[in-house]
């Protein structure tokens, strides 16, 4: 699914905003950026409710319907030749993603033994990174056959995924379901410790978006536009190779909450060190350190979310946790660019990196505070109202 997504989404800008002489449609980049931004906003906004619906209906039907809508959205995208059509197809694809995102995490939680969840979330992240590596390569190869072909191939991935999950995923409906779709979200919001945990994570997600914003801008300034390939290849490649063995090592020596706090601090430190990177290889060394931190954060954050949630509300808790990614991702995209511009205007090249490092330090301290005294066992049920 990740491979299918990254086979087509990076090509949207290339196809619709690219020069007509090179086979593009020549649309304004701002228009295409608006489409992609609204797709992301639609998916993240709906993810909050997708998790709550999973507690009522079970995750399987939402995941299967989400794959179906993503299929239709990507296929329609291939036939879009006007901005309203492209926007509608992108929003449909976003709705599909919003339906399967939180229910996916809920399903993993429900079918996995508590002792194995951190490793399972790590494998999920590993497969996502593998898709991030292979998807753009597939999309670039298919672009020679036309954007429509690339979009249809990407859509077919979700047909296959939907069929596999329809056949193999158990239909799980938690016992003691909430009285309404919003009841679970209300309980997650009233869970004081989990609410703090979710809000503090906004700081981390501000940092995690910088690989696409501030870090990319610095890479281009040091090595030109061609630097993005090695940059993303290193980040995703390290995750594919090291995430699972690294997590097994961390599991052996650190509690999950300590691992999360340490990883967030490492991400902040790596961004701070980028202020000293005067060459592209030095920047890549910082990116490697950054990647080590991010590959630990995802599985530990997902595991702790599962531990916080009562069994019947696991989807609602994962849905509520999407707020941190939505708000942090949006804020990070704006803040990263603004900091780079401000640093250049003031002649303070270290400004963005020291600011981001400070956000990382504050977030790590905040997580330690939010998780202090947290004794939720692997089975969860540690809600504090």
From TrEMBL:
Instruction: Recite the UniProt keywords alphabetically.
Output: Cell membrane, Membrane, Transmembrane, Transmembrane helix, Transport
Name a GO CC annotation attached to this entry.
plasma membrane
Q: Where can this protein be found? A: Cell membrane
InterPro entries for the chain? MFS (IPR011701), MFS_dom (IPR020846), MFS_trans_sf (IPR036259), MFS_Transporters (IPR050171)
Classify the protein's membrane topology as the record does: Multi-pass membrane protein
Every Major facilitator superfamily (MFS) profile domain range: 1-375
Where does the sequence pass through the membrane?
Answer: 20-41, 123-145, 151-172, 197-217, 229-247, 254-274, 280-300, 312-338, 350-371
Pfam families of this UniProt entry?
Answer: MFS_1 (PF07690)
One annotated GO molecular function is: transmembrane transporter activity
Its chief place of residence is: membrane
Coiled coil spans: none
The protein in question is named: MFS transporter
């Amino acid at each position: 699914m990740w491979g299918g997504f990254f086979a087509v989404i990076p090509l949207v800008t290339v196809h619709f905003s690219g020069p007509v002489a090179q086979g593009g449609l020549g649309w304004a980049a701002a228009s295409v950026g608006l489409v992609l931004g609204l797709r992301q906003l639609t998916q993240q906004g709906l993810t909050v409710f997708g998790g709550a619906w999973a507690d009522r209906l079970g995750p399987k039907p939402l995941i299967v319907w989400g794959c179906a809508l993503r299929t239709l959205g990507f296929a329609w995208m291939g036939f879009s030749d006007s901005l309203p059509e492209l926007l509608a197809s992108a929003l449909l694809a976003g709705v599909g993603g919003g339906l399967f995102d939180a229910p996916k995490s809920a399903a993993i939680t429900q079918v996995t033994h508590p002792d194995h969840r951190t490793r399972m979330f790590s494998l999920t992240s590993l497969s996502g990174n593998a898709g991030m590596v292979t998807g753009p390569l597939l999309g670039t190869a298919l672009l020679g056959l036309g954007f429509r072909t690339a979009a249809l191939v990407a859509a077919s991935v979700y047909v296959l995924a939907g069929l596999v999950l329809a056949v193999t995923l158990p239909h799980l409906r938690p016992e003691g379901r909430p009285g309404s779709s919003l009841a679970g979200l209300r309980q997650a919001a009233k869970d004081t410790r989990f609410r703090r945990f979710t809000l503090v994570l906004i700081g981390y997600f501000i940092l995690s978006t910088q690989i696409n914003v501030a870090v990319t801008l610095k890479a281009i300034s040091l090595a030109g536009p061609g630097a993005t390939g090695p940059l993303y290849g290193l980040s995703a490649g390290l995750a594919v190779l090291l995430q699972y063995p690294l997590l097994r090592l961390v599991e052996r020596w650190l509690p999950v909450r300590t691992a999360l706090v340490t990883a967030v601090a490492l991400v902040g430190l790596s961004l701070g060190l980028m202020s000293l990177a005067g060459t592209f290889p030095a920047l890549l060394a910082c990116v490697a350190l950054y990647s080590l931190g991010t590959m630990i954060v995802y599985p530990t954050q997902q595991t702790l979310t599962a531990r916080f949630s009562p069994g019947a509300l696991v989807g609602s808790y994962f849905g509520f946790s999407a707020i941190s990614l939505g708000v942090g991702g949006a804020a990070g995209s704006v803040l990263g660019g603004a900091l780079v511009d401000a640093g250049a205007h003031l002649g303070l090249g270290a400004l963005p990196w020291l600011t981001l490092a400070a956000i990382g330090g504050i977030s790590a301290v905040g997580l330690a505070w939010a998780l202090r005294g947290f004794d939720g066992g692997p089975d969860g049920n540690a809600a504090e109202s």
